Amino acid sequence: MRKKESIDAGAQTAARNRRNFLKVSGLALAGSGLLLASCDNDDDGYMNPDDVFDLGSGDVGVLNYAYALEQLEAAFYTNVLDGSYWAGADTEEKAILEDLYNHEVNHRDWFKAAIGANVTNPAQRLPDNLEFDFSSVDFSNRTSVLQTAQALEDTGVGAYNGAGIYIQTPLYLTLAGKIVSVEARHAAAIRSIINPTGDFKAFAGNDIVDDNGLDAAYTPTKVFENAGPFIVTPFTYKNPMGS
Amino acid sequence: MNIIKFLDEFTTDRLQQPMSSRREMFSQLGSISKKAAMLAVPFGLATAGNKAHAQDVGDVPAIFNLALTLEYLEAEFYMKALESPVLGSTGKAREIYEQISKHEDAHVAFLKQALGNGAIDKPTFDFTVGGNFDPFMQNTSTSMDTAYTQLLILAQAFEDTGVRAYKGQAANLIGQGELLTAALQIHSVEARHASEIRRLRGLEGWITGNTTGIPDLGVEAANDGVALVYEGEQNTNQGGVDVTTLGSSDPFSFESSTQAYDEPMDGQTASTIAGLFIVS
């Protein structure tokens, strides 16, 4: 029997422990109380109370999964554009971050429309207003903002790359492809501007592209390890592949 | 018919000839497109006599051989760029090209390994497109500035093409598990490259409408090739939804709406673009 992973992405404890996040280069990435548990099918009910939303499987699961990540990114850049770092940033950085905000809001609203039109059972649609907690980000601080942006963009790329195998419908795979390459363009730009006089190879650095020239492809577990600390609303992704 | 035979058929006879006049080059491109169109398929560069239903599910070796062709093209381009005097011995542009070169070499090796005996041989490339360009400054009369400009333009066109070509094949790899994942992983690396090269040229890392960001190259076939790289990027209809109608604020402007989605390119178009640089 296939072993399934149960992920409680926005565990309540995560919210409470938010201020205790391990700081990695000024960025909260790990150390959350995120509940990650593996369990057999028989245990699903135990591990996941019925009142916690599950993203689902196959196409529906990926639509909801991507919608959650796009909601997260859109919320993050909304905060960035409301923050004092952005207000005083140089022209290039300001323009890039504004573009990223525009793109992520567009993606978010596209997923909302697509899910509304294609997921026939409203109970299977991810809620529109996930709650996030960005208290670990200092929106007045350039490094804090850009490192978080980089982490979110790289995580987005890895999430889409890893989720391709869950998609059953060609149209959705192509649509995911249309979005993931834009996320990768974002990631490269952010990586490039973080340290303008430093590592000129950072846009596709060895920390994110492996020796085979392959970008990240993350499991949902890994994605929620990275993004979970920002997500307050709990949900699970018990069986991405389905069947 | 393998991909090289496919490419050969519309390149060897024509592109080997000197292409001095704009009119002549244009007619060659037109002929290439016509031939490509006749062989057209969703992406059926597969074996001759392949049945339509076989193409529907995706011919994995053909898909990977198209990818390998593009990677051969890129790998040789960056290798020659780094061997040329154009990038100097140090500096930002050189480091960017070194990193991209490393990835393209790795992609070639990866795809060759995946294809095994089915891998096509490396074609012979001509990055001057019949002597019209000199990105590696092989001719002493070419200025460094001119060569550098051409070097960046070609990189941008190759990377943006790569992104679109992989994207165009992704849906044909549904059900292929790790092969699909690997193709997606290469796809997003190409997008990182594209973003960086575009920004090195002073452009945004993303594509607005079908704007090329590339000036008139003075050679009609080359201009047509550049236009092909970006044609279709102006699409705003995503899965039946016109994303410009989702709202009225900046995120839903035509500019934002086209930047936010990269568009796929079919195998025929990708082959036509690669074919401009293939001698045999």
Verbal overview:
The complex is a heterodimer of chains A (243) and B (280). With 243 residues, chain A is mainly alpha-helical. Chain A is built from 8 helices and 6 strands. In chain A, strands 1-4 form a two-stranded antiparallel ribbon. A two-stranded antiparallel sheet of chain A has the order 2-3. Chain A has a two-stranded parallel ribbon with strand order 5-6. The N and C termini of chain A lie close together (11 Å). The N terminus of chain A is likely disordered. Chain B is mainly alpha-helical. Chain B has one domain. Chain B contains 10 helices and 2 strands; from the N terminus they run ααααααααββαα. The radius of gyration of chain B is 18 Å and the shape is globular. Chains A and B meet through helix 5, helix 6 and helix 7 of A and helix 5, helix 6, helix 7 and helix 9 of B.
What descriptors fit this protein?
A: 243 residues; two-stranded antiparallel ribbon; two-stranded antiparallel sheet; 8 helices; disordered N terminus; B: 280 residues; mainly alpha; 10 helices; 2 strands; 57% helix
